[in-house]
Amino acid sequence: MSAYAVGHKVPDSDSICSAIALSYLKKVTGEDVKPARLGELSPETLFILETFGLEQPELKLTFADTDGIYVVDHSDRIQGPDDIDDTTVLGIIDHHKLGDITTSTPLECWIRPVGCTNTIIKMMYDFHSVEIPKNIAGAMMCAILSDTVIFKSPTCTTADIKCVEALAEIAGIEDYKALGMEMFKVKSAVEGTPIRDLVLRDFKDFNMHGKKVGIGQLEVIDLSVFDSMKQDFLADLAALKTEGQRHSVMLLLTDIMREGSEVLVVSDNADLTDKAYGKSLVDGKVWIDGIMSRKKQVVPPLQDSLA
Length: 307
Hints:
- The chain contains ten helices and eleven strands.
- A six-stranded parallel β-sheet has the order 3-2-1-4-5-6. Strands 7-8-9-10-11 form a five-stranded mixed β-sheet.
- The chain starts with a strand and ends with a helix.
- Helix 2 packs antiparallel against helix 4, helix 4 runs antiparallel to helix 5 and helix 4 crosses helix 6.
- About 35% of the residues lie in helices and about 20% in strands.
- The relative contact order is 0.11.
- It is an alpha/beta fold.
- The chain folds into two domains: about 180 residues, inorganic pyrophosphatase (n-terminal core); about 110 residues, Diaminopimelate Epimerase, Chain A, domain 1 (Roll).
């Protein structure tokens, strides 16, 4: 049997590229670890893998028959494998708040307040003095650019920027910001995509003081691409709320050029955004200037407001 590196449900580019990069590092350092995924890949992630000639990780939903898992890009149980209690968590590599995964045995933990899990994995490669293959370096670089919104996100740190520069050199990418914009153009091509697919493209559930809250995010170059979709989005958020017995469902429509987000909300609390962000909903929507990061700007005040 093998061990696996696996990210969260509804995987984004960081989850997938982290699983690939960590698996390679572990193999070089003597562990049999394979990358896995808990869902289908987004157009952006497919673009990254195709650009650098990397295969999709195995779609694997159960891990009881493995030698354990390395959890990447999350540490909340609700976001990970459903049978996590039936396997051994060998390690956690993450850049989010500390979640509620617990273990009965010691484990490896690399948790840093940086913009992307792949930044931490670059540090791990450096720590072990392992050379990063060109194609993996390119994918790691793109994941960091995606998670930090090409350094525009408030989660971006000097470490993220330095890692992108180092990985771009390894990958032979001269203009990494131009490649980053290509990625976001792929993200912005939403026409013809089913509403549910868009809502779930980057969607996470959170347990906030016993209340299940789902938060999705779509990052685009121009928010006008969603003008004709907003009522359909709200209808689908209402359906998701009922289907998942959620207290609240939110969708962030993030404009990376204007550096802010329009937030769509369906909730048991009509004053949800008033309490969390000091902004009132109008017809289920509110624009919040400067909101770019779900993990840093959206989740913490929301969680506090629901206490």
